[in-house]
C-alpha cells in the first residue's frame, strides 16, 4: 500500500502454497490423538486427507484480512505528514476493532447479499475455478507542456501511452480478464466521458482557474499555483484549523481531474441508491419481510438447498461483535480525545451510515464485481458536522469505510464458502481469526516500515527508483486537509468556489431512472439492463491514484479476452481464461516477493537507466498552462 506501483498478492498465491504444505502435512504428521494435559480433551494433528474444503477454509483464514485496514492510514498520516505522536497500543486496538466490525455487519446482511442466488460476485470465479508506462508523444516533444499533457499516461490524456506491466494493468482497477464484459463496457464509457469530454472542457475553458494548476494531480495548490503550505492554516499544537492564517494566506485549489473525481464520487453514491431502489427494491423488501421466516428468506437454488444441512451462525453472534466494537470505539474516543479528535457520537454516526449504504453498494458489487467508493459521503458528512479537525475526519472515515469494505469482502468470502459448501460456523471462526491476525500483522508491519525506511512517502528525497512514494497515503492526507482541516463549507458549499460540484449528487439520480424506464418500455432489449450507472460513475475514481495508461491497457486486455478470444476461441476461453488471469497475478506476486527479499531490502531498485524512473517521462504534464503562472521546473507561458 506504500508503493508507487500497487502490488496485490492474490489469494491464488496462498492457495498454491497451501496445496503443497497441506498435502505434505497430511502425508507426514502423525494421526494419533494428542491429549491436553489435565483435561479429557484431545485432538489430532492429522485428522484426515487434505481435501478441497480444508483447502478453501485455510485460504479464507489466510485472506480474510488481506486488505490493509483504513485505520492504519490514520497512524501513517498523523506520524509522517502531520508529524504528531500516536500511542502504539490505541492504534493497534483501533485496527483490531475496526477489522472485526465489518464482520458483524456482514453477518446481518448475509440473507440479502450471500444467500440470494442473483448476488453472484463475478470475481469469485477466480477462486472457484508503474510505472513502466511509456508515452511516444513525450519522446518527440520533450519541451512542450501541451504535447506532454496530451501524451502523459499518468498526469494527462494518455494519447500514445502504453504499458506491458501487469501490475499497472490490474493493480488499481482489478484483473480485466476476470470482469464480465458489461463491467468493462460501463467502465470504459465512464472513463471516456470523464477524461476526454468533461475534464477537457472544464480545463480549456479555465473553469475555476483550472489552467493555473496541473490537469491531473493529487497535490493541493494556493492561488499562485504553488503547492499549498498547510502550516499556514493549521495550529501545530493541536492540529486544528487556523482561521486567521487561512484568511491571510489563500483558498485551496485542486486539479480539474481531482475535482471531477470528487463529483463523480458523489454521483456514484446517489446513483447506487437509485439503482438499488428501482432495480432491486421490490425483491429486497420481499426478502426483508420474510427474512426470519424459515425457508422463505431467499429464493431457493441448489446451493441454498445443500447448505441447509449445516447449522447456521446465530445472528446474536454478529450483533455481539457490533455492539462490543461500538462500545470500545466510544471509550477510545473519550479516553484518547486529544489524539483521535473524534467525539464518541461519531462512532455511532459512522455505523449508522454503514447500515444505510451497505445493502445498495453490496448489490452493485455482487452483480458487477466493482466496488463503489463510499468515502466521499462519509468525509463530507463529518466535515460539515465537525469541521477543523483533520484526525477526527480520518477516524470517522476509518470506522465507516473499513466497516463497509471489510463487510463487503467478508460477504465475498462467505459466497465462496456458500459455493464450496463450507459449514457456516467454520467460516465464522476462520474469517474472524484471519481478520484479527491480519490486523495485528498489518499494523505492526506498517509501524515498522515508517520507522525504518528513510524518507518514506517523500518522493523528492527518496533514492531514484524507490517504490515507497505512498500515492494512497498522499491522497488520504490531502483529503484530510480538504474535508477535515479546512472543511467542505469553505472549499465547496456554500462558501467555496467549487460549490456547484454538489450538483453531482442530483445528477447521479437521473440516469438510473432513465435506464429503468427504458428497460420497462423496451423489455425485448436485454442489453439495456446491462447499463450500470453506478459502475459508469464509480469506475473512473481510480484515476486519482492511477492514470490514463492504466485504463487504456485495462480496457484493451479486457476487450481482447472477453470479446475477441471469447467469440473466436470459446472452448479455449472456457478452459483457460480464469487460469490465465490467476497465472498473471501469480507471476507479478512472486516477482514482487523475490525482488523485495533479494534486492529492494538492500536498497537496490534496478539498473541505472531512464526506464528506472517511476514517472512516465512526461514531467511537463504537471505544469500549468495559464499565461503568467510561474512554477519551478515549468516554462512560463
From TrEMBL:
GO terms for biological process: protein transport. Pfam families: OPT (PF03169). Its main location: membrane. The chain crosses the membrane at residues 85-106, 118-141, 153-173, 179-204, 252-278, 316-334, 346-366, 426-450, 501-519, 540-566, 578-599. GO terms for molecular function: oligopeptide transmembrane transporter activity. Keywords: Membrane, Peptide transport, Protein transport, Transmembrane, Transmembrane helix, Transport. It is a multi-pass membrane protein. GO terms for cellular component: membrane. It is found in: Membrane. PANTHER family: ISP4 LIKE PROTEIN (PTHR22601). Belongs to the oligopeptide OPT transporter (TC 2.A.67.1) family. This is Uncharacterized protein. It comes from Acer yangbiense.
